[in-house]
Amino acid sequence: MYSIKMRASKNDRHISGAETIVKRESIESTVNKFIKRAFSHENGIPDFVNIKIEEIKEDITYLDHLSIKTIDCKTKEEAREVAKDILRSQGMREDVIKEAFKIIDKGNMRGASLLNLEGYRLEPNRERGVRVKCISTSEELKEKILKNNIGTERTIDAIAIATKVIDLGVIAELCLSDNLTYTTGYVATRSGYYRITNLKNKGDPGGRIFFVDINKGDIEKIERLIRDLENKPYIIK
Fold first, then answer.
1. Is the dihedral of CA 62, 179, 152, 210 positive or negative?
2. Which of 41, 57, 73 is the last residue before a domain boundary?
3. What is the spatial distance between Cα 128 and Cα 123, in angstroms, rounded to a whole number?
4. How many CB atoms lie within 10 A of CB 139?
5. In the chain, how many domains are there?
6. What confidence tens digit (pLDDT) does each residue in 169-190 have?
7. Residue 209, CB-side half-sphere exposure with 13 Å CA sphere
8. Count of other CB atoms within 10 angstroms of residue 207
9. pTM for this one?
10. DSSP 147-211
11. Do 179 and 132 belong together in one domain?
């Protein structure tokens, strides 16, 4: 099995990315699909595209996906209250939740921010953030999501990330797409993956926050989590 990663940018600003795990015979078709995705993204035409192909040499974790639940909201304000309620149910303080939305609304995030329960950011490089890599979804799950109208192509990518990070000990994830016209976001916890419509307005920036129970001085634990998020291979089914 091989991990394939694509990142596209313009003037050093992130435009799009993609990630999957495939068999050797699917490498060429997957790379072509990712190139097409890079050059047809609504956020613009990139001036730099990086595609990385690596053979996976360690055991792959096969994991059942988080349950998927969609919550329809009419406004951004209503949607954010829903998201906040879910985060509160996981023990998040009001000031920490407020800080999470502040980080996201600022935009220009290349990866996820690690935010602990005291509201401290733990990622070593705030511009780069933390990238969740070496993930994919099974063909059966992709078919289930699309044929049963459970979600979209974006849901397929997101459920893989959400399921992996929660399995690795992240308490909750808050995510808003950086696609300018895609307004559905989500909150993920051990109790499920909650798609929330209108979590942002069209044209708003996006971002991703991982809420973690790690002290800011526990460098070893922070480094281990980042290493696992970026390198442990998962296929979500």
1. positive
2. 57
3. 9
4. 9
5. 2
6. 999 999 998 888 999 999 999 9
7. 29
8. 25
9. 0.89
10. HTTS--HHHHHHHHHHHHHHHTT-SEEEEE-SSTT---EEEEETTEEEEETTSS-TT---EEEEE
11. yes
